[in-house]
């Protein structure tokens, strides 16, 4: 009996040391070839812009080229499935926005599980949003907007960039908090939705600051409130929706970075270090600030920070989406 226990103890000790040695070896040799950073949207969009900006300094830190590759379709689920099924070696990294959290509720059939099929690298950036109205829309501030909606809810139109878009989710949350159902007008992208808002064809739109700040400053649209807990440096005179009565109202287009499940912890740590080096780069900071994109605090730029945030966001958006019946094709 003692001999058997001794043999088992020896076996587990060898297994543990082998695993530790393998993990250390993985870190020592990784990466020895170019790394692919998968973006689930077309080139030129906000997520793609962030990816291309941080890819260069990440590559310098890793000692290999980081190649940005766009895998487009189905709201990012095609790219997510591709990365989830890739080899767990750290050579295919995935960057995705909050769609990672909304996909389980939006899609009736999903080929990956955000909470089970990935290792988490860390959060990356947040992009704030603003609730906008057309230039000649009667309400001039948020209190007037609430009163106008209650009196004219059957006539007010709320644009969005299509099923699953953050603008749609922001609109759903707004309607839920206000207890109204407005006429929603889906578009194939934020660009055409914003164009029609500027042209006065629709009344309201919740959109990202990356493209709306110039229009707000030029008075081409009305801004009723920002969707962040605090006011934005770029729009210091625009109150938050939270301070105007919608307590806890927060919608940010947050981004996270992932690799496939089973990637060695040492490799995950290397990628995480490269991400943090990139986000601390002065040029990266300046470029992101110019686009009104916020780098998340260091505590969130960790595997646990991303895992906890993803879990909270899934629980936040799932009920909103299911209640509205806002399913994607």
Automatic annotation (TrEMBL):
User: Which Pfam families does the entry mention?
Assistant: TctC
| Gene3D superfamilies documented for this protein | Bordetella uptake gene, domain 1, Periplasmic binding protein-like II
Keywords in alphabetical order: Signal
> Which residues are the signal sequence here?
1-21
> From what superkingdom does this record's organism come?
Bacteria
Q: Which InterPro entries match?
A: BUG (IPR005064), Bug_dom1 (IPR042100)
Family per record:
Belongs to the UPF0065 (bug) family.
User: What is this protein called in UniProt?
Assistant: ABC transporter substrate-binding protein
Q: Which organism is it from?
A: Polynucleobacter wuianus
Q: Recite the lineage of the species.
A: Bacteria, Pseudomonadati, Pseudomonadota, Betaproteobacteria, Burkholderiales
């Amino acid at each position: 009996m003692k001999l058997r226990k001794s043999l088992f103890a020896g076996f587990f000790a060898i297994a543990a040391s082998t695993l530790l040695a393998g993990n250390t070896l993985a870190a020592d040799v990784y990466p020895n070839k170019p790394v692919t950073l998968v973006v689930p949207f077309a080139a030129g969009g906000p997520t793609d812009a962030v990816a291309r900006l941080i890819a260069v300094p990440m590559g310098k830190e890793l000692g290999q080229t980081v190649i940005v590759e766009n895998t487009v379709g189905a709201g990012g689920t095609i790219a997510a499935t591709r990365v989830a099924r890739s080899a767990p070696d750290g050579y295919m990294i995935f960057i995705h926005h909050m769609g990672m959290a909304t996909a389980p509720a939006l899609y009736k059939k999903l080929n990956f599980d955000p909470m089970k099929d990935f290792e988490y690298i860390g959060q990356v950036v947040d992009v704030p949003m603003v609730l906008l109205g057309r230039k000649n829309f009667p309400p001039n501030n948020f209190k007037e907007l609430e009163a106008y909606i209650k009196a004219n809810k059957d006539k007010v139109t709320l644009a969005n960039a299509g099923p699953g878009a953050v603008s749609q989710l922001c609109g759903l949350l707004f309607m839920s908090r206000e207890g109204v159902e407005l006429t929603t007008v889906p578009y194939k992208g934020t660009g055409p939705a914003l164009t029609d808002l500027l042209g006065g064809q629709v009344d309201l739109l919740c959109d990202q600051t990356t493209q709306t700040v110039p229009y707000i400053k030029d008075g081409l649209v009305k801004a009723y409130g920002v969707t962040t807990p605090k006011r934005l440096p770029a729009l210091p005179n625009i109150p938050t929706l939270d301070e105007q009565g919608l307590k806890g109202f927060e919608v940010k287009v947050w981004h996270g970075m992932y690799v496939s499940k089973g990637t060695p912890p040492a490799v995950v740590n290397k990628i995480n270090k490269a991400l943090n080096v990139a986000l601390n780069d002065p040029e990266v900071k300046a470029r992101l600030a110019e686009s009104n994109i916020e780098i998340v605090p260091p505590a969130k730029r960790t595997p646990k920070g991303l895992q906890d945030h993803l879990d909270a966001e899934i629980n936040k958006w799932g009920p909103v989406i299911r209640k509205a019946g806002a399913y994607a094709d």
